[in-house]
Amino acid sequence: MRMAWHIGRVAAAWLLLAILSLGVLADPASAGPPQVAKGRGDKCVAETGWMRRNHMSVLKHQRDGTVHEGLRTSTFSLKGCVDCHAVKGDDGKAVTVADPKHFCRTCHDYAAVKLDCFECHASRPEGAAMQSGAAGADPHNGDVAALSAYLKEVQR
Ligand code: HEC
Ligand code: HEC
Ligand code: HEC
User: Fold this and answer.
1) What's the CA gap between 4 and 23, in Å, rounded?
2) Which of 110, 100, 6, 107 has its CA nearest to residue 52?
3) Are 97 and 82 in contact (CB under 8 A)?
4) From ligand 1's centre to the CA of 150, what distance in Å?
5) pLDDT beneath 50, residues of the chain
6) Closest C-alpha to ligand 1, atom 22
7) How far are the Cα atoms of 75, 79, 82, 95 from residue 86, in angstroms, in the given order?
8) What is the pTM of this model?
9) How far is the CA of 143 from the centre of ligand 2 (A)?
10) For the chain, which residues make up each domain, given as ranges?
11) Residue pLDDT, tens place only, 124-137
């Protein structure tokens, strides 16, 4: 049941994106659809289409591996995504996830996906600006109790 619901949700999200991108082709001046900023360089850490479909599971797997088993491979590092996919704001500095232009929000806002990742993880490259508050916090300074509570929560 849950799985079917999940697949339905993924399909719905992608159908929506597909319709929105058709809109862009039909009307280049349209302001509606997600404007996904291009990452730095010419390749993602995996094939682009694959990343669009699978980034959510590799990120989560990576996270669980890191936190529970101390596994450290850098291919699907969240810090890496944030570094390479930084988008500059009007002030020339990389925006945080508070800004709708943030790379991770371009699709998520459309697909109505809400992430809590950036409550602990920095949402822009380190050194982009002095960061304070939720969107800029580094998990190394995080509260261990909060992390344990969070891990319990996601395992249900
Ligand atoms: C309650 C705090 C908290 C939340 C919320 C959280 N993380 Fe983490 N995350 C951590 C901590 C602590 C580490 C370990 C830090 C390290 O190893 O650098 C970590 C490590 C990671 C890593 C491996 C290190 C890296 O930079 O790649 C990934 C990937 C990751 N988290 C992804 C996510 C994703 C995706 C979400 C949201 C779905 C998320 N995290 C939500 C605290 C959190
Ligand atoms: C070394 C730089 C780099 C890193 C690190 C990187 N990306 Fe990418 N990413 C890119 C580039 C460049 C593209 C566009 C490739 C293209 O045009 O085919 C891209 C494309 C994407 C897309 C598709 C965007 C679209 O246009 O629909 C997604 C989703 C994505 N990346 C997610 C991630 C995630 C999640 C991470 C971290 C696990 C990550 N990327 C790490 C450079 C990077
Ligand atoms: C090309 C569009 C696109 C981009 C860009 C994108 N995402 Fe996603 N992401 C999606 C879609 C669509 C879903 C919903 C899939 C679903 O419903 O399970 C999703 C889901 C997720 C999830 C799972 C959320 C949940 O509720 O389980 C995580 C974690 C995630 N994305 C992380 C990221 C991060 C981190 C970035 C920026 C580095 C990013 N995504 C950029 C399209 C995108």
Assistant:
1) 28
2) 107
3) no
4) 11
5) 22-30, 129-143, 145, 156
6) 63
7) 17, 11, 6, 7
8) 0.77
9) 30
10) 37-155
11) 998 654 343 444 44
Residue 41 Cα: closest atom of ligand 2: 12
Q: What is the tens place of the pLDDT at every residue in 89-120?
A: 999 999 999 999 999 999 999 999 999 999 99
| Number of C-beta neighbours around residue 105 at 10 A | 20
Task: Please answer whether residues 101 and 86 qualify as being in contact, where contact means their C-beta atoms are separated by less than 8 angstroms.
Answer: no
**Contact yes or no for 110/71 (Cβ under 8 A):** no
Residue with tokens 């009307």: 27
Which residue type, as a one-letter code, is found at position 153? E
Q: In whole angstroms, what is the distance from residue 36 CA to residue 103 CA?
A: 6
What letter represents residue 84's amino acid?
Answer: C
Give the amino acid at 139: P
